[in-house]
Amino acid sequence: MSRAQPSSASAAAHGPALAAELPAVLRRAGLKLTPQRLAIVRALSGDDTHPTAQELFERLRPQLPGMSFATVYNTLAALAAAGLCSARSFSVGRPGRPGAAARGATRFDPNMQPHDHAVCDACGAVYDVRRAEPGPREAEPTTPPGFAVRAVEHVYRGQCGACRRAPVGRAARPQRQPNRPTT
Predict the structure, then answer these.
(1) pLDDT tens for residues 106-125?
(2) Which helix (H) or strand (E) covers residue 79, if one does?
(3) Strand, coil or helix: what is 130?
(4) How far apart are CA 5 and CA 133, in angstroms?
(5) Which H or E run includes 59?
(6) CA end-to-end span of the chain, whole Å?
(7) How many helices (H) and strands (E) in the chain?
(8) Under 8 Å between Cβ of 129 and 113
(9) What is the pTM of this model?
(10) 118 in helix, strand or coil?
(11) In the chain, domain spans
(12) Which residues, listed in sequence order, are joined to residue 134 by a DSSP beta bridge?
């Protein structure tokens, strides 16, 4: 019944493209090539956890104590504007529960290949999901008049393996480390 499988491919499949294009992208965006920006891109390109700007800032702060949060956020915004990563927001929680419609922090995804996402309702972890092999084409949805479809994406909601194994009422904290195992 599963139409899509969790992606076992790491960010390495798309990370080198991001790192290789960095100098040109930063120059086109009017940004200088600095050690801070290089570190941000390296950290993002090797991370399949869909980190937030805050998570990257906290991860890089020990090595780059003089770096500001604005540098991290502006660099990520420039990469997204250049099409080298996507800025995504996923709500967290279950329908009918308090906070279910709460908008999550913007997450940055270096995987620019077509894919879907699985979001854990308990801890908020986001996983890439490979799309199923093409099969019979699904019917085109009816969109409002004048609406131009840019992309079609699916978001699978449920609980990750860690949260399903956690004691009732206690969600597991998502591991924000590159290449965490998929469930």
Answers:
(1) 999 988 888 899 999 888 88
(2) helix 69-81
(3) strand
(4) 10
(5) helix 53-60
(6) 17
(7) 5, 6
(8) no
(9) 0.71
(10) strand
(11) 1-183
(12) none
